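#struct-help
A.M.: can someone run this one for me? Single chain, 289 residues.
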Amino acid sequence: MQISITPPERQLAIKLKDGRTLGWREWGPVNGIPVLFCTGAAMSGYLGFGFDVLPKLGLRLLAIDRPGLGCSTHHPNKSLSSWADDVEKILKFIHADSAHVVGFSQGTPFALALAARRLASSVAIVSGQDQLYHSSMRPLLIPDVQQMLNVIEQDADGFERHVAKTFTLEQLWDMVMGMNGERDREIYESPAFNAAYRRALEDGFSQGTKGYARDLILALTDWGFDVETLRLPLDLWYGRLDTSPVHSPDFGVTLAIRLPQASLHILDDEGGSLLWTRSHEILETLISH
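D.P.: on it. Structure tokens below:
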């Protein structure tokens, strides 16, 4: 399957009081309803989604570079709380109190952190990474993921330093491509998508590996808020053909149980790439709440 990819239509940034730069890429009408995109692991905001439907739905997609990725300056003490602080400043810049939010893969905790801060009016989690350290998840994890969590529990700072010093873009690229099943390989290996995804990762690693290493720790340790307390419209989207062991291995079932207002959508004919193959359905549902 060929996916039509549109490069960012606009690139913006703001200067924060602490001297850092916070940047993002945009698609859709500049006066449209804002949708904030929390990207996957190590991705800058270069690769968006829903390019053909954003104008039809009147949506302005903002794909934010998390601190240390792309054009956003590294934050030495980045947390999910500091991320929400940063996004609040973007909302102020675009004259909005809240926005619709989409979290993809490792972007899940970052999207839900915005919900916990009441910066999100509705949330779509797509191929989301659950709280893998949660007791309900542990029996479902493959041994390699279990071992990584064990190491992090023993020495999270040491693990973060190790990843920051040794991990490379090529290792992440090979890992993601190796985890893809047939349905997702069809998308990821298509020329336009492959080039745009590669560009997003190259941007993500442009400042080195520290940004990704920090995000990994934040995703795999206590998120600092209870998902059970979230009270807003929330949709969980998973593809039954998704073979990634770090997306929710049960296709979001346990996460849906712990999210009282969540609607779970498991699509039998899709993989982890359904953000791009089902963009219209996901966005239309997101803004219908």
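A.M.: thanks! The chain has a mean pLDDT of 96.
D.P.: also worth noting: The radius of gyration is 17 Å.
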